[in-house]
Amino acid sequence: MSEQPAYRFAVNVTPKPGILDPQGRAVEKSLPHLGIAGVSGVRVGRRVELTVRAVDVAAARGVVDRLASELLSNPLMELYDVEALG
Amino acid sequence: MTARVGIVLFPGSNRDIDAVNALRVAGAEPVVLWHESVDLEGVSAILIPGGFAYGDYLRAGVIARFSPVMRAVAAFAEAGGPVLGICNGFQVLAEAKLVPGALLRNRGLRFVCREVALLPEHLDTPFTRELGVRRPLRMPVAHGEGCYYADDATLDALEREGGVLWRYANPDGSVAGPDDPGNPNGSLRGIAGVRNAAGNVAGLMPHPETAVEAILGSDDGLGIIRSLVVSAAEYAATGAVSGTTTRALAGGAA
Questions:
Q1: Which of B41, B209, B213, B234 is catalytic?
Q2: With a threshold of 0.80, does the pTM exceed it?
Q3: Tell me, what's the ipTM?
Q4: CA separation (Å) from A12 to A23, A45, A84?
Q5: Are B223 and B42 in contact (CB under 8 A)?
């Protein structure tokens, strides 16, 4: 049996809209000290990159969706999106 | 018969010895349970102590949730056994969805280590039954992610069904809202601890187990630990614990 193809993904996890993000707020408040104006809506999240071996890209994506929703993010407070990397 | 209470030990737990001491002070036999074991060694209650299980990598409590011992703890909880999570233990229970809600980073971003006043909401639950009277309890908090969060519908349901067990109190005894001085982390509606719908699993951020003797600065936490021990003895003797959902719901649905 030949080895299954490898697919590389990034999972981006961000705080849900409306959830207080004190890290994002702290970053935003620091910007005037840098002399930067006009920036708002800063939200700090997390990016996880990983490689999945599966029969095809759809199956690989299914694996990523499962681990993103069950482990990498907490659906009560975070959203995630999956990005296919080259 | 002395009640046997299990203390779950993860790599990174650091309040386990305090929990051992508290259970002994409360008259129970502590049994330390290693995270890789699924054998609960016949204990009749579980205490998940504070610390930084698995380094709190990814999110506090999330990796601990998938450990072998937590499969056994979930089955124990499902069967009606009493489970109490303290601080990191509360975060583990929330990540495991054994109690509602989530613990976010403290609103002030800082790790907060200080004494708080904790107001119990109900005195007839497996975790508050030995408190006697409703008065503020002094005990420490020590956490970076303790801001209790759930959506409004969940919060409303929790309050309606008696699911909020403890709230932070201001110096004047009032409930400490997210921005009040008595609230160490910005928890919504001042919530410091909650229980599950069935009433047999609870978690709180403050540390009752380090406030069980006068020499520790306060013994106000002993009533919570003794409540767990009494519930453990009851569960061992009868296979059930009083003060779970039926009674709490009857009181809260008026």
A1: B209
A2: yes
A3: 0.81
A4: 16, 7, 11
A5: no
